[in-house]
Design a protein that fits this description.
Blueprint (H helix, E strand, L loop, with lengths): L1 H9 L1 H16 L6 E3 L2 H8 L2 E4 L4 E5 L4 E6 L2 E10 L2 E5 L9 E8 L2 E5 L4 E9 L5
Antiparallel strand pairs: 1-7, 2-3, 2-9, 3-4, 4-5, 5-6, 6-7, 7-8, 8-9
Length: 132
């Protein structure tokens, strides 16, 4: 009730402005800008880190280029490298010679690996899990 009394005292235009500011202050932080990462930014973001969607997959990126992947309960090795502004994964079950390369985009705390048509992976960067 006190809020309504204050709003009546300050007038409708100011009340509308305050309401809009309140809504914008609540919603704007949730809207994050999409940022395409450069090769050095990709390396800095994932080297010696764990990227995961917390449910279906997780990739441990070691600075020497190794990747330990856990995808839908399967554990598989891979190699990672940076070519230009793309993250490239050499996955032996797909090819032993030709890596699959992705553009990496950061949206807030999330990284997305995108090929030419789709988002292939979407996850968050975490510290490397402790060894058991």
């Amino acid at each position: 009730m006190k809020l309504f009394k204050v709003l009546n005292q300050v007038g409708k235009p100011l009340a509308r402005t305050l309401l809009h500011m309140s809504i914008a202050g609540t919603l704007l932080p949730a809207i994050s800008k999409e940022v395409a990462l450069t090769g050095p930014q990709i390396r800095a973001a994932i080297s010696d880190r764990y990227v995961t969607d917390e449910h279906h997959w997780g990739h441990k990126y070691f600075s020497d280029g190794r990747v330990e992947r856990s995808e839908n309960g399967r554990h598989r090795p891979a190699r990672w490298s940076i070519k230009g502004d793309r993250l490239c994964l050499l996955q032996p079950e797909i090819s032993k010679d030709e890596p699959v390369c992705y553009r990496v985009v950061r949206i807030g705390d999330e990284l997305q690996y995108r090929d030419d048509h789709f988002v292939a992976y979407r996850g968050s960067v975490r510290p490397m899990p402790k060894k058991d």
